[in-house]
Inverse folding.
């Protein structure tokens, strides 16, 4: 039997691997009449950016254990292996630039004309989550859980709870959820004192210990069945972050008021920066409000899934996201699903490509491209099919591009002729396998 | 303010009461591909990718995150 069904042996291997990682034991093979107790949703993901930027190879699983009376245990596990380089925040220069590494114990040089990238970016991230869901009365559903993740320089712990209540013959569902997280940033070499200079190799005098942040999320939602083929949802979300919200590795170039070029400095004999760079600083609070709407519509077996999201925050960032999926069955056992996503955001009020040495230092400044003006476009295609054992497999390939610009008023002298916001292009490939035991 | 919200919610629920289907008309809505989050693992993957690369997150559910995301 098993030799004729490689699918089954793959399922068994994945089940035992997932259970071993989660510290649980897989249920014995079930009889034909018995309801499956475990539902395993597993995937391998590759995410790769061009120009040798971030690469991520990730294993993910989401496992559901069904109990009597509709009670469900949900266990999530993610293991990410990250490599590659990430922009340091410094601007391009005509000649080479030397920087001290985030650890403070070595220096590296970026060739002239290139966007400075820090290539020591290497990390393994393990993330776990567990949720318990059960009915509350005839029309209610309660879900409580926790989440935690650890990477070399970051620790996340969180709790969450959600309650959903059905009305009108279960055609209307009103839900509310709350999540609280406490994260610790254990920056390599210690988090720098904001807006102080990058120092020579071995000089950690402007570094301090770990920092924390608290994140509170609230989501209120309503979903409504309109008719046999149409379902809609609307959510309001609130998020408040308090604490250390800086990126401890991002620096701003301190530039000449006329030429726009980075001011030079003399590095120490053991090595150090040959330009003047200051560590970024962000406000220690951020409040975000969001509106999310979604519709699912069945058109004779094909399903349109469209959503729109608007988010605004007190850092002056407004974003709009439009997402469209179209699931197109190919016979009974497979489907194609094209996907398009458009995203646009305005910059944070303190986003700055560099600091003008002729002006006094602002209270807050960050060169992080993720806080800039940009558009993101995703285009992808997924192919899914049923295996001989009625399990689900799928492969999706997507391209994500980001293109943005620095407001012209921020550019000085030679900066005007350089590409200060290079495009980001990423390839996403995900293979998923879902099975029950 | 609270009364206005309560009234709005009541009006919404009353309006919604005229929509929807009977329990025996749920064949299409019960399909896996008609669930609001049809593929939870893919949704979680996307939430994490975009959380790492864009300034805003969340909406569908909680903000996600829990990473340094350099």
């Amino acid at each position: 039997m098993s030799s004729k069904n490689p699918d089954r042996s793959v399922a068994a291997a994945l089940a035992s691997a997932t259970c071993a990682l989660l510290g649980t034991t897989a249920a014995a093979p079930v009889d034909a009449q018995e309801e499956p107790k475990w539902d395993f949703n597993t995937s391998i993901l590759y995410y790769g950016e061009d120009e040798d930027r971030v690469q991520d190879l990730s294993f993910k699983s989401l496992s559901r254990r069904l109990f009597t009376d509709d009670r469900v245990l949900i266990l999530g596990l993610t293991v990410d292996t990250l490599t590659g380089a990430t922009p340091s925040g410094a601007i391009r220069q005509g000649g080479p630039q030397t920087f001290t590494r985030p650890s403070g114990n070595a220096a590296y040089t970026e060739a002239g004309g290139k966007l400075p990238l820090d290539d020591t970016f290497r990390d393994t991230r393990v993330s776990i989550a567990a949720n318990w869901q059960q009915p509350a009365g005839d029309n209610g559903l309660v879900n409580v859980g926790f989440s935690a993740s650890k990477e070399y320089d970051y620790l996340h712990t969180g709790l969450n709870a959600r309650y959903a209540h059905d009305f009108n013959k279960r055609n209307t569902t009103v839900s509310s959820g709350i999540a609280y997280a406490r994260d610790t940033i254990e920056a390599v070499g210690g988090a720098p004192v904001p807006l102080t200079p990058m120092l020579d190799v071995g000089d950690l005098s402007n570094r301090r210990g770990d920092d924390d942040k608290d994140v509170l999320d609230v989501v209120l939602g309503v979903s409504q069945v309109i008719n046999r083929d149409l379902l809609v949802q609307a959510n309001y979300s609130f998020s408040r972050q308090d604490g250390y919200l800086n990126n401890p590795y991002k620096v701003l170039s301190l530039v000449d008021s006329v030429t726009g070029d980075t001011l030079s400095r003399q590095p120490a004999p053991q090595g150090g920066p040959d330009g003047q760079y200051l560590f970024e600083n962000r406000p220690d609070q951020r409040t975000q409000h969001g509106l999310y709407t979604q519709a699912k519509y069945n058109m004779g077996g094909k399903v349109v899934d469209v959503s729109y999201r608007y988010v605004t925050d007190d850092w002056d960032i407004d974003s709009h996201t439009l997402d469209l999926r179209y699931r197109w069955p190919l016979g009974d056992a497979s489907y194609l699903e094209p996907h398009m996503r458009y995203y646009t955001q305005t910059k944070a009020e303190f986003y700055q490509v560099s600091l003008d040495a002729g002006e006094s230092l602002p209270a807050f400044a960050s060169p992080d491209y993720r806080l800039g003006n940009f558009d993101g476009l995703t285009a992808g295609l997924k192919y899914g099919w049923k295996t001989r054992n009625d399990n689900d497999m799928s492969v999706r390939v997507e391209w994500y591009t980001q293109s943005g610009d620095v407001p012209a008023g921020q550019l000085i002298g030679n900066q005007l002729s350089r590409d200060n916001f290079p495009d980001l292009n990423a390839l996403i490939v995900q293979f998923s396998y879902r099975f029950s035991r | 303010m609270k009364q206005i919200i309560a009234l709005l919610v009541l009006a919404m629920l009353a309006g919604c009461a005229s929509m929807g289907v009977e329990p025996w008309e749920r064949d299409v809505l019960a399909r896996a591909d008609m669930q609001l989050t049809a593929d939870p693992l893919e949704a979680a993957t996307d939430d994490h990718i975009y959380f790492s690369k864009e300034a805003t997150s969340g909406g569908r559910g909680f903000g996600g995150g829990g990473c340094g995301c350099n």
